[in-house]
């Protein structure tokens, strides 16, 4: 079975040798120069183009294919910008009970960091490939700790998840939080990290 299919992630492609990425891109008549990360990003986009299929009914399928815009994704989550409560106002209600965490997937995070239009300077796609890969690797390597959720109120349509991250090179910790919808289709609405990379 080919690695290049609808479930392929950037992380999968980075596990390949640079020569394998170049061979794939050459086969697709695409540029083969650049760093391994650039080649993986290019191969990821080409593979997505090859495997895009229009969903018939599932919103989550559309989001996984990167075919829903950020506005469409937000409207399907039934949460608007004006509904979002500031994380700074949540002085209580935090818990580490994992049973209360929304069942957000790796694909949901991919949708936010790569395809959503949350960039500060313009409305283009974020395309945060490096942050997506490094963040997931930090989690797998045990850098992330003190993960907690705040459901805000019972009838609230959104919640916050926050955590601490040990820096890979320095002492101390960074703080992260993500605001997301409580129910499927799970949509990341906002996110923040106190690290210098943002």
Radius of gyration: 18 Å
How far do the termini sit from each other?
Answer: 38 Å
Order of helices and strands: HHHHHEHHEEEE
> What number is the mean pLDDT?
79
Major β-sheet profile:
5 strands, antiparallel
Total beta-strand segments: 5
- Total of domains: 2
* Helix count, DSSP H or I runs of 4 or more residues: 7
Structural class: alpha+beta
Low-confidence stretches: 53-77
Specify the helix fraction band: 25-40%
Labels describing this entry:
198 residues, alpha+beta, 7 helices, 34% helix
Précis, in short:
This protein has 198 residues and is of the alpha+beta class.
Walk me through the structure.
This is SAP domain-containing protein. The chain has 198 residues and is α+β, with helices and mostly antiparallel strands. The chain has 2 domains: 10-51; 80-193, no CATH class. Helices cover 34% and strands 16% of the residues. It contains 7 helices and 5 strands. It has helices spanning 10-14, 18-27, 36-51, 59-64, 70-77, 106-115, 129-140; strands at residues 94-95, 144-150, 158-165, 174-181, 188-193. Strands 1-2-3-4-5 form a 5-stranded antiparallel beta sheet. The longest helix is centred in the N-terminal third of the chain and has 16 residues, at 36-51.
